[in-house]
Amino acid sequence: MPADSFMHKADPRIKFFGLVVFMVLIFLKFANPAMDFLMYGIYAVVVFILMKVTKLKIFSLFKQLKSLWFMMIFLLIINIFTFRNSEGNILFMIGNFAIKDAALYQTLYIFIRLVLMIALTSVLTASTRPLDLTYAIEWYMSPLKVIRFPVHEIAMTLSIALRFIPTLLDETGRIMRAQESRGVDFKGGKVKEKLRGVVALIVPLFVSALQRSDELANAMIARGYDPQAKRTRYRILRFTWRDLIVLLLAVSFLTLVILLRVYHIDLANMLYVNIQNLLSLWGLK
Amino acid sequence: MAIKFHHIYFSYAPKSPFQYDALHDINLEIKQNSFTAVIGHTGSGKSTLVQHINALLVPTSGAVKVEDFLILPCKKKKYLRQLNRKLKSKKVSAEQKQRLAFLKSIVESGAAYKVKELRKKVGVVFQFPEYQLFEETVIKDVAFGPKNFGVSNEEALALAKNALTLVGIDESFYSRSPFELSGGEKRRVAIAGILALKPEILVLDEPTAGLDPLSAHEMMEVFANIHRAGTTIVLVTHDMDLVLRYASDVVVMKDGKIVEETTPQKLFADVKEEYSLEVPAFYAFMQALVQRGCPLDITKINTVSDLAKMVKNLKEQAK
Amino acid sequence: MNKYALEIMNLNYSYDKNVEVLNGVTFNVKAGTYVSVIGHNGSGKSTLAKLIAGILDVGKGSVIKVFGKPLSSYDDERPDIGIVFQNPDNQFIGATVRDDIAFGLENKRVAHAEMDDIINEYAAKVKMSEFLDKEPSNLSGGQKQRVAIAGVLAMKPRILLLDEATAMLDPRGKREIKEIVTELRKEVPDLTIISITHDLEETLHSDEIIVMNEGKIVLQGTPEDIYKNHETLTSIRLDLPFIFRIKLELEKQGIKVKSKDLESLAEELWP
């Protein structure tokens, strides 16, 4: 996470917006499969650029995908059965069993979408502190204040929860070690044993968490905290020129893609045709 | 049952960007029936070291031997293969090979530890142990440990009652919820939970942290009694008072290494500044007197009144 | 200006009907002084701290006045009293040192533009300037407590209440806090400091010590006055700070000394 890229300096609210927009685009379907794949290709290029801008290593993305391929094979088999009677071209036959191209396409769609989504979210999480994300969420929720929705309280709860994650993890480790020293086997052991072990972990954690929140609440009140009262803010999110650029890019990309979709423009075909023409012009065909 | 550490190295999160090397080439023997204090500045590796004794942590390299049990970085066969490979490698220095050959002989002479057996022999009490309490009643919580080791319900209850008596918790507490007890009472129940296992080695990590001075000494008397009955005690602490009063041996750690193995008296005769120990007023004062030329024999002083008597005698002799 | 920072009259408290934890506690704390409250576990000193801090409600017939103004209920703002609690983690609210000190300022509605200066000033007072962007999981107990002190002081209270603030710290952390308090005495002489503690060495620098036992005040006076009463103290399960203990033992051996601190004592004993 620590780095100094353009993305790192961009406002979390804009990044959040960009993420949501892109997610929507990923799920659009276009004129035909060729077009779909072309668009996915364009998305991939954009995501690649984003990852590079955020100084992410593409390699780490592949590591995350390793666990996916098994699921994909499974999905492919399911799709083969689902689509065997639908329209579409037959790829090949196993005896009387028709394996249609639709099966392959659907599986590929899901795979590509997953990869893109994983890559996009990693761009967001790598370039944004979790706390900044809560500020972004708070900002997006703020209109709800009109209907007395406890926006501030939720944001405060989220930020405190985040602050305590490392502390709670440490505590979990400590309790586990203490119980292991009393003979609990968290790794091996029969089911009954493991269950008792889990109880021996959860109960102390819970009790400790309750005591902790009590003490924390006292400390907050002692420092003048009143969720209902007005408070000033130390951390203020400010839009900069970077955010304007990201916003413009996001909006133009969004518009372009929507146009392509709405008007059923078959770019793929157009490209294909044009490339054919070019090739014949150069006497290669 | 002695505890032996042979060329122990330990790193948290090895081979990751978060690697932290906590122990460097630790070679140590903790004698059977000793009351060994392990002291050192915060972060010197004391807690990391003692967690190897019951295999909560296993060394990144090297071997720990508790009785005949071996605690190794990985399975015995695999480790022997690794050692053999290194011994044949040309990249390894002769000095290193000597060390590896020694390790190999250690490994071959012992059997890999079995978790349950080891953890029954070695009881570990962590800092602020009251956080481990979870059962509905005090007696059930203390009986939890023995039951995990396959002891019958009746026997577990008997062991629990014994342990609770040792720490001074009487019958009236047995069916109360551990959560309604005071801090000091919770601490005693938690410690009873480990004593109920009747361990042959008792590892204590700051058992008196947060207790007022009188309760701290009451607690230490319990441990002293257990020690006199034959248990080996390893005490990790910052409290020099306790070290002087109760320990037979002292191990001083600094930055992941052992810098001195000595006795409390010899240690306090001349506490070196580079150990970064917080020396309480008592010892600082004695050292100030010594520095002014007073021939105090610190090894013979256990309490403040000892000190006063000695000063009086020395002053009379000086006349 | 009020002479007394704190006036406590006839304070009674029980958690349940049977056990009276505090019984008729009455004392005053003069403004600008440093008072330590000691007593064995169960003497009522923690309950006293909670009542002053507003975590527990004061019952009828008991009065607590802060600079002349009576405190009535838990919900009142207590801007004049800043409290540092025992557990370093459970009072660290912000994601970083900076954010934690800012928390109190946000509650006080300090203007955004002024916040950074105040944060830097108080971080410097507790020697945590280099740690402003560190997260609590990377700080020691002593460091976290220093941040707590900074966060509380940044709200400019007139009374600083330390509720066993060093109990969970290692010796180094304890020393760090003691040093900070000593420096505060010099830098902010108007600040009234009340420290509930069972570290007796800490009490040597206080102007006054209040000794509690079984819900009552047993002794009140300067360290010199208090630690003369070694028999009383022992009977209520309290010890003496080393300097008084050694002077006592020397007296038993027939050696009378005049020194007030350990350095001079060493000189006096072995010139």
Q: TL;DR of this structure?
A:
Helix content of chain B is 42%, strand content 20%.
Notes on the protein architecture:
The complex is a heterotrimer of chains A (285), B (319) and C (271). Chain A has two domains: 6-128 and 239-281, no CATH class; 135-222, no CATH class. Chain A has eleven helices and two strands. Chain A has helices at residues 6-9, 12-26, 33-53, 58-65, 68-82, 101-127, 130-141, 151-181, 191-222, 241-262, 267-281; strands at 90-94, 97-100. The longest helix of chain A is centred in the last third of the chain and has 32 residues, at 191-222. The mean pLDDT of chain A is 84. Chain B has a domain at 280-318. Chain B has helices at 46-50, 76-88, 94-108, 115-121, 138-148, 153-166, 183-195, 213-228, 240-246, 264-269, 281-291, 304-318; strands at residues 3-12, 20-30, 35-40, 61-66, 69-71, 111-112, 122-125, 201-205, 232-236, 249-254, 257-262. Chain B has a six-stranded mixed β-sheet with strand order 7-8-9-3-10-11. In chain B, strands 2-1-4-5-6 form a five-stranded mixed β-sheet, with helices on one face. By secondary structure, chain C is α/β, with parallel strands linked by helices. Chain B binds chain C through residues 41-42, 182-184, 209-210, 212-215, 238-239, 278, 280-282, 284-285, 288-289, 292-294, 304-305, 307-309, 311-312, 315, and chain C through 40-42, 140, 167-168, 170-172, 175, 198, 200-201, 237-239, 241-243, 245-246, 249-250, 252-255, 262-263, 265-267, 269-270.
Strand order of the largest sheet of chain A: 1-2
- Care to count the β-strands of chain A? 2
**N- and C-termini, Cα separation of chain B:** 51 Å
Spans of chain A of 5+ residues with little confidence (pLDDT < 50)? none
Q: Helical proportion of chain B? A: 40-55%
Major pleated sheet of chain A? 2 strands, antiparallel
Fraction of residues in helix of chain A: over 70%
The class by helix and strand makeup of chain A works out as mainly alpha
pLDDT < 50 stretches of chain B: none
Overall 3D form of chain A: extended
Question: How large is the count of helical segments of chain A?
Answer: 11
Number of helices of chain B: 12
Task: Report the sheet-strand fraction of chain A.
Answer: under 5%
- The tally of beta strands of chain B, per DSSP, is 11
* C-alpha-based Rg of chain B, rounded: 22 Å
Name the quaternary structure. Answer: heterotrimer
Mean pLDDT of chain A: 84
Rg value of chain A? 26 Å
Strand order of the largest sheet of chain B: 7-8-9-3-10-11
Shape designation of chain B = flat
